[in-house]
Amino acid sequence: MPCDKQTDYLLETLPQPVIYHSMTPQRFSTDVVPKFEPAVFKGFARDWDIVKAARQSAGDAAGYLQQRAARIVHRMVIAPADIKGRIGYNQSLDGMNFQLQDIDLARGIEQMINCDSQAQEQRCFQSVPVTSGFPALLDKIPNPLVSDTAKPFVWVGNRLTVSPHFDEANNIAVVATGRRRFTFFPPEQLANLYIGPLNYTPAGQPVSLVDLHEPDLLRFPRYAEAYQHGLSVELEAGDAVYIPSPWWHHVQSLEPFNILVNYWWSGSFVSSSMPFTFLLHGMQVTKNMTPGQRQAWKSILDHYLFDEGADPAAHIPEPARGVLGQLTPEMAAQLHQWLAQQIR
């Protein structure tokens, strides 16, 4: 049952992150990064050609992107109309609530631009590497705040919402077309966001089970506390947001057609199946973290590994708990194989 006072949980009434109207690499390094919190850069990409095209129309932006699309196929998310654009786990938490289709990039964008109703299936391409998917775009999307090792990715689609999740790397996301609302929660709000299964995820990271637009406080009562710590902001084409890892963020695309470009960067995160090597790896990956990142990852590890006072999977049905439940020999073997692949 949704909460009694829905207006008490409107994302639009949350405080905004700090907003900067100009940003330089030096200012980013000295004023933004040490705060370890999201920050908005208004007009950051106002001079990008794709943003200029978006000011003309969504169709112009779509055409601009299509003309620069490589002739490759990419996996497209197809969200049925009945999920109202909120992609994630299905009702039984044993799979996803969307379908996937491999399709030519330009053709997929054509399907998206022709979808003008929320009553239709909504589509999107997620995390398309610019180097392989849109190589002609590389020199048209400058980002002086990141190094050359931070490769850009393109996200393009209809009105879709991704529930709160975190990235394992720092992120600068730039709205190139349309509008997006970003809602943020500090890493220590993990326990109040009711995260779904970890061993299968919508797009690589586990996501919250809470519908932020209709929070069910009978099922997820601690979300009321998370909301008190939330930040939210609506970005227009040309605006950018910095999201330090591992802050939780909920992303809602607000227009019928939207394009976002993002950049991730961080150190390596490598796993091991042996406790002692886990300890050594923990030392290795945390030595060069900022104090904020180190404290944030401590919160995550405490929640899933060291906090004996609460079961982190209590809100997930037993058949869907995966690695959060009873570890069977078969699952242990699968997990060992997966870990081995990660450290090749």
From TrEMBL:
At the top level, the lineage of the source is: Bacteria
Return the SMART domains for the record. Answer: JmjC
Give the JmjC domain ranges. 117-280
Q: Name one Pfam family in it.
A: Cupin_8
The record, for InterPro entries, names: Cupin_8 (IPR041667), JmjC_dom (IPR003347), RmlC-like_jellyroll (IPR014710)
SUPFAM superfamilies with a match to the protein in the record: Clavaminate synthase-like (SSF51197)
Q: What is this protein called?
A: JmjC domain-containing protein
Taxonomy of origin reads: Bacteria, Pseudomonadati, Pseudomonadota, Gammaproteobacteria, Alteromonadales
